[in-house]
Write a structure and sequence with these properties.
Length: 144
């Protein structure tokens, strides 16, 4: 069989290329699993890109497997922490919240409630830090 024939076989027999059975072991506890992936589920048939696949394992561990277009696992990486309580950022809201806290801080100082004033000051500092991190992220995003 020539290389050309092999290529056309790969590209035209959907049953052969669509799915690939894989065996992996959990990087955390070494339990072994098999799974099936569709390696040609993108429109770019000739793409040589590597897919990053999140595997939610029955042992409760999570990992990422890097799989190339031929279904070969190029690497695995354990996920240390899975954060799901993500909320969209209200950029405009920062200034309003900081303004409100500033007023509250001034009022507490006038009332000589220094403990609460100090707590509010810490909240303001935390919000400013968060806002600065957002600004840095926006700048970075704009540069790329
Ligand atoms: Zn595990």
């Amino acid at each position: 069989m020539t290389i050309n024939n092999a290529r056309s076989l790969v590209h035209h027999d959907d049953e052969l290329v669509k799915t690939s059975k894989k065996v992996i072991s959990c990087p955390r506890c070494n339990k072994m699993y098999h799974f099936t992936i569709n390696v040609h589920d993108t429109t770019e048939e000739e793409s040589t890109g590597i897919k990053n696949i999140l595997l939610d394992l029955p042992c409760k561990h999570k990992m990422v497997a890097y799989v190339d277009n031929n279904g070969v696992i190029r690497g695995t990486f354990p996920i240390d922490k899975h954060v799901t309580d993500l909320k969209p950022i209200d950029l405009k809201g920062y200034d309003d919240r900081i303004d409100d806290l500033q007023k509250k801080h001034e009022r507490l100082i006038r009332e000589k409630d220094y403990n609460n004033a100090f707590a509010v000051k810490k909240q303001i500092a935390a919000l400013n830090r968060e806002k600065n991190e957002c600004d840095a992220l926006i700048k970075k995003r704009g540069a790329s």
